[in-house]
Amino acid sequence: MQIEARNISFQYRENTPWILKDVSLKIEEGERVGLVGPSGYGKSTLVKILAGYLKPTKGEVLLDGKPLPKKGVSPVQLIYQHPEKAINPRWKMKKVLQESGMFRDEVMDALGIERDWLERYPRELSGGELQRFCVARSLFEGTHFLFADEMSTMLDVITQAQIWNLMLKEVEERRLGLLMVTHNAYLAEKICARTIRLEEINTREE
């Protein structure tokens, strides 16, 4: 399976500056790719377009040559930097996982998810605890691509290591495609087999 962005351009409104201009890239299933760029250069915008959360102004995103599915649970999962933005505050954490059908004990154990957290609301958990749920939810059996947008930036070092160790294990065992979005080129080169610098493929004018 392959996901491809073809000549993606994006602006929030007509007659405003382009955030992205003629960006093209491909990610194969089983490939680990780092997307590196300075803050404010459109990394998060691009990954939201690739995951189907934003519609490009021009261009298209194709999954095996077809548009991304509009219904059902997507095979492309995006993990945000700020987990509170991705979780319904009215749901208990048990329902958050039920939505994706992801209740693998080995995943929850590897992420350090306590079972009593399942009966809590998002406001009753820390940011690090919420991010563990977001990662677990993204690893349901229908996932083929994982997009991690500065996923571990706000976490302590121990939690970062736990999450990345599990992610890389799942990526390798299940041959998932991984797109790591970061401003940290050293980390991207350490984790990923290939690194893309957004400023080199984004032709927008400053």
TrEMBL record:
<keyword id="KW-0067">ATP-binding</keyword>
<dbReference type="InterPro" id="IPR050319">
    <property type="entry name" value="ABC_transp_ATP-bind"/>
</dbReference>
<dbReference type="GO" id="GO:0005524">
    <property type="term" value="F:ATP binding"/>
</dbReference>
<comment type="similarity">
    <text>Belongs to the ABC transporter superfamily.</text>
</comment>
<protein>
    <submittedName>
        <fullName>ATP-binding cassette domain-containing protein</fullName>
    </submittedName>
</protein>
<dbReference type="Pfam" id="PF00005">
    <property type="entry name" value="ABC_tran"/>
</dbReference>
<keyword id="KW-0547">Nucleotide-binding</keyword>
<dbReference type="InterPro" id="IPR003439">
    <property type="entry name" value="ABC_transporter-like_ATP-bd"/>
</dbReference>
<keyword id="KW-0813">Transport</keyword>
<dbReference type="InterPro" id="IPR027417">
    <property type="entry name" value="P-loop_NTPase"/>
</dbReference>
<dbReference type="InterPro" id="IPR017871">
    <property type="entry name" value="ABC_transporter-like_CS"/>
</dbReference>
<dbReference type="InterPro" id="IPR003593">
    <property type="entry name" value="AAA+_ATPase"/>
</dbReference>
<feature type="domain" description="ABC transporter">
    <location>
        <begin position="3"/>
        <end position="206"/>
    </location>
</feature>
